[in-house]
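// run 5 | inverse folding | seed 20
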């Protein structure tokens, strides 16, 4: 059985972000079953401009790269901090670049937090993703609770409780992917994504 391809996206631009370290830990967990790749280009994306996202436009190469990575992934795992009870602007900007494309509709996407006190950002992010026609996967538990600890990826994996939460998140994404493939024939998936790509750009 081929490993499930998961693109991991951190909503933090900090060099030693807890969110990024948790996702790095996911890249090391069960590599024979899950091929998790950490996307590190969120901070390189230009500000979203609908004028650059029209059919006749040539989109920036970094945006084309993001879209290609999303398209190639079976599922997406996002870990993000909460800023002012909301989603970080850099992460929202990345999602804005994906609104008019065919990559997100039907894609299983899960949100994994690192603080149990972050409740507003996951709710807001889930609403954004549902609006984009993503298949939002509810995780239980939905938090790798670091309790303020600055752990490296290897330390996250060394903690049995944290590693168990990570494993459960990956398993949930695999189940969602398998269910989606079983429920929706390839032609239906293609039609849904084609419809999304033909939607008019926002004002």
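// decoded
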């Amino acid at each position: 059985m081929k490993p499930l391809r998961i693109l991991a996206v951190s909503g933090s631009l900090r060099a030693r972000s807890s969110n990024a370290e948790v996702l790095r830990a996911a890249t090391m967990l069960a590599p024979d079953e899950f091929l998790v790749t950490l996307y590190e280009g969120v901070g390189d994306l230009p500000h979203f401009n609908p004028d650059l996202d029209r059919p006749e436009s040539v989109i920036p190469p970094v945006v084309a790269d993001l879209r290609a990575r999303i398209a190639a992934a079976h599922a997406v795992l996002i870990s993000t901090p909460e800023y002012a009870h909301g989603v970080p602007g850099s992460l929202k900007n990345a999602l804005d670049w994906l609104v008019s494309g065919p990559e997100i509709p039907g894609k299983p996407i899960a949100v994994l937090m690192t603080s149990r006190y972050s409740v507003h950002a996951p709710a807001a992010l889930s609403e954004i993703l549902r609006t984009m026609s993503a298949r939002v996967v509810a995780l239980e538990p939905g938090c790798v609770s670091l309790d303020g600890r600055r752990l490296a990826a290897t330390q996250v994996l060394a903690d049995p409780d944290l590693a168990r939460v990570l494993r459960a998140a990956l398993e949930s994404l695999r189940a969602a992917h398998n269910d989606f493939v079983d429920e929706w024939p390839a032609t239906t998936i293609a039609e849904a994504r084609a419809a999304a790509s033909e939607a008019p750009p926002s004002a």
